[in-house]
Amino acid sequence: MSSVKDPAAEVHVEQRRQARIDMAAAHRLAVLHDFHEAIDNHFTLMVPGRPGRFYLNAYGLHWSEVTASNLIEVAFDGTVLEGTGPADRSAICIHAPIHEATGAACVLHTHMPYCTAISQLEDMTIEMTGQSALQFHNRIAYDYDYNGFAHEHEEGARMAALMDGKPILMLANHGVVVTGNSVAQAYHRLYYLERACRTQLFSMWTGHRRRFVKEEVLEKMRAQAAWKDPTMAMSGPEYHFAALKRLLDRSDPSYAD
Fold first, then answer.
1. Tens digits of per-residue pLDDT, 206-245?
2. Residue 166 contacts by C-beta under 8 Å, 6 or more apart in sequence?
3. Each residue of 41-73: pLDDT tens digit?
4. Cβ pair 109, 42 in contact under 8 A
5. 212 exposure class (CB count in 10 Å sphere: 0-12, 13-18, 19+)
6. Which of 62, 59, 92 has its CA nearest to residue 74?
7. CA atoms within 13 A on the CB side of 18
8. Which of 111, 114, 197, 257 has CA 20 to 30 A from 7's CA?
9. 3-class DSSP state for residue 255?
C-alpha cells in the first residue's frame, strides 16, 4: 500500500524547522548584543501548526549554548511536551498569558542594560528625541507596579492587559517585554529599543536640555513607516534579521544544529 503524504503536514514540519533556527539565532544574537543575563530571561515563539504551544529555551543553558534542536516545546500550562530540560516558571507565567491575550507569535523578555536602566527611573518614558526611538511612538505601554517574580499566570495576564494593543511593555525595575508577528520583527524591535534607550541615556547624562521631535513630524513618520517599497522583496525587519543570521553563519553556525 502506498502512503499518501499530507502537504499541509510537510509545510508545518519545514515551518517548525525554520522557527527553531530563528529562535536559536535570536538567543545567540542576544549574547552577541549583550541583551541576555546568562541563563536567565526568556524568548518564546508559537509552534507553527500547534496552537497552545511555544518554543522556549530550556532553563540552565547559557544562551550561547542554545541550538535549534535543544529548544523545548511547552504548553501554556507549563507542561514540557517535547525536548529535554525544565521550563522556567516565570517564562510560563509571563509569556503564556501574553501569547494568548495578544495573539503575538513571538515574545521576548530581557533585562538588557540600557533599557533596564531606564526602567529603574521614576519616569521610564522612552522619549521621542532620537530617530531610533521614533518608530516606537505610541507603541509602548508602561507597567509601573513591580510585583517581584512572576510565579502565577495572573501576573502575566495583568501585564498583557496593560499592553492594550501595544507591542512593547516597559517593566518598572525589571526590563522589557517585546512582541512581534515573527522572530525577525520582535528582534528588530528589541534591537532598536535598546539603541534608543542607550542614546537617550547618553543625552540625559550630558545634563543639557534635550530636543524633542515635534508631534507633526512624528505623525509624518508614522505614514512614512507604513509605506511599502515595491522594489524590496522583504520587510526591513526581515532584511535585518537575515543579515544578523549571516553574521552567525560566519562566526558560529552551530546555532542551527
1. 999 999 999 999 988 887 777 788 888 899 999 999 999 9
2. 138, 139, 140, 141
3. 999 999 999 999 999 999 999 999 999 999 999
4. yes
5. exposed
6. 92
7. 12
8. 257
9. helix
